[in-house]
Amino acid sequence: MDSFKDRLNSLAKALGKPVPNESEYIDYKTLRKDYEAKANQEINQLQQQSKRQRIDALHGRSDLNPRWTFNNLIEDSDDVIEAVSIAQSFIAAHEDRAWREAGSHMMIFYGDYGRGKSHIAGAIAHQLIEQFEITVLYRQLSSLLEMRYAAYDFSAQDNIGQKFREANQELLDVDMLILDEVCVNETVLKKNAQSWLGNLLRQRLVNKKNCILITNHSLGDLEHALGRYCFESIKEYDTYKVKFSGPSRRTGLTLDEEDLSPKQQYQPNQVR
């Protein structure tokens, strides 16, 4: 009597189908294992694609300069080397969930213009996005204050009040807030600006959100510029202070010797 396999082969011949060889036969367990492996591989690829899309979206919403990375940073002075070491330790600490949930952390970068403060802050943010998918927002304090003042113009037709409320909520919700140019060209912030910033920092503190503040002031001058209420808010954070004192890394317009000579210079609208 023909076996079941022989009858299948005869049926295949009758239908004009190829008859499988003995070596082509795959048992059910092997076939299922192969299908599961392929399915898991496809799922993993989809997960990686989805993760990359999320990370790219986080980078896009952060408003960070894409060139602010550790790869583009020149470690040419002791202050930058020390700042990078502190930054890497801060990033590595995010591996510890207990540390992340223990409280709010703040880094204060202070020093003169062009020392690399914003660059290193941006590099920290880029790496946190890549490794931990942390939401980041980079803002200049002066721009936020200008928007805040404009929000009180009730005759404005551009819906600035609603825009500021949405922007303010975003400042509260984001995991890492970078405030640059803090009190730039300001000896003392106005009292209502001090109160607003102090309340913002206190609410972020309660919600265990981290911050980086970047300023050209010394710490003493910063306390005076922000006011006691706002500066007391900063003291509540687990704070890391990083001073930048090396040479400026910005290159650009320089004056020639002839430009510095006391000869008569052209003046616009000059009547001869």
UniProtKB/TrEMBL annotation:
Transmembrane segments: none
Composition bias, Polar residues: 262-272
Region (Disordered): 253-272
GO MF term (any one): ATP binding
Family matches, as InterPro entries: IstB_ATP-bd, P-loop_NTPase
One BP term from GO: DNA replication
Taxonomy, superkingdom: Bacteria
Domain IstB-like ATP-binding: 106-227
Entry protein name: DNA replication protein DnaC
The organism of origin for this protein: Marisediminitalea aggregata
